[in-house]
Amino acid sequence: MQLSERTEWTLLATPLVAFLLLSLGFPAIVNLVYSVSEISFATLRSPVLSGFGNFAAVLQDPDFWRANWFSLRFGLLTALLECGLGLFLAVFLAPLFKNRSWPLAILMMPMMVAPALMGLMYRLVLHEFAGPVPYYLWQWFGDSPSFLGPNSAFWTLIAVETLQWTPFAFLLFHMAYHAIPEHLREAAAIDGAGAFQRFRMIELPLMVPTLAVALLIRFIDGFRVFDNVYVLTGSGAGGATASLSIYIYEAFFKQGTIGKAVAASVLLFLASFAVLYGLNALARRKRK
Q: Which fold has domain 74-255?
């Protein structure tokens, strides 16, 4: 007996749905309860429901909006820089990697380092008093910027994140570039198209889906950044470098306002769900 498409989809999706409910369902329910409760470390097992006061406290907190603005700028800029540099390297270095694959291992090395360790390394290198980079800048030019100061910390964090994760974007674009059928390039060359014309009219359009996926992945990763920012600058002067993840962490562990921290995490989840649902709806409409 042949199963209907709906029944087949249900049977295939049931194990995944069950796994997600078991692994994420209970923590999600606990978070929702805590977000509408008066809660502290002493009353974790007996929360007292209090309505939506935690959400109101979060939405009225200027530090919450400052953290959102930092995360949004950080995610967008790092995603654009990483994908732009990764695309350039994938195309520019394509002849080098055509017959040699070992340089790929060298380019992938930054990805092998944990973000917290990367942040610690740059904190030591760029430290205003002990770091070698400021020292030699003072020796050679008589001046050195405060890389981790309030005026430069944001761009220092952008540079560190870009240096570490550009190889990820490069790897995606490298695979997509080499997956383009060679006969398309040969046909365009016979028709007299130059290298830039082939890239603009053939190669780039075929790589657009990979480019969109890479931008989305890197934006999500940049928006939720925690490790290297926390190690390098923490929340910064006046919360200047506090991402949304750092805001939630400090509200939970340093301020002890568990309900407020959980409410902020719920808002982050709802915003993420809305964005992903919207992107999926756009993708479905484009396919139709």
A: MetI-like fold (1.10.3720)
